[in-house]
Write a structure and sequence with these properties.
The protein contains ten helices and no strands. It is an all-alpha fold. It has one domain: Heme oxygenase-like (Heme Oxygenase, Chain A, Up-down Bundle). Helix 3 packs antiparallel against helix 4, helix 4 runs antiparallel to helix 9 and helix 6 packs antiparallel against helix 7. The longest helix has 28 residues. The two termini are about 30 Å apart.
Length: about 220
Amino acid sequence: MWEEIGELFARILAHPFNRELASGGLARERFVGYVIQDAHYLDFFARALAAAAARAPESADQVALAQASAEAITVERTLHERFFGAYGIDEARWRATPPSPACFAYGHYLIATAETASYAVALAALVPCFRIYEEVGKALLREARGADHPYRSWIDTYSDESYAATVRRIESLCDRAAEAAGDAERAAMRRAYLTSSQLEWMFWDSAWRMERWPFELPGRRG
């Protein structure tokens, strides 16, 4: 499935958001908007991982997914502590900014799939985020130059070997689930993987466009 999305991943790397992130020339307001949305997304992602963990057939799988959920929450807290502080984003601003349409769609798709589809399909929907962020982080690390690169700490988060180890663990769970699945379930896994991959591109694109809802209704969030 990873090989099948090769062209899509190339589009993600070539997207203006990631081109400017790599060069360090990404506008501050775009990165701030991205960080806020990423914090929202990680909350959805952690909940979806926890839902998948609850349905895992083996205790070792439950532990791996629960740990991944906890790590997602840790990354979210790191965003709050490191990037929110560095870029002057206070808690009130984050809470007042709802998830963008792309973030909302992607996050709720993951949660709905984790809670209503089979365990194998839930894994297939969750894997693209892990792998795409790892590959983006490694690609950007090769391009980022200088210790004073403004976004180097973000790049380091996803190019780190400990993150790569997490990705391999989750992919191995997905591989084993696919081996045990029948043809129909494997087809459903493929659809879920491709859908999440498309939503990944949409999330990057929404960050570039600083996407907002067409109009806002008072009191709506999440």
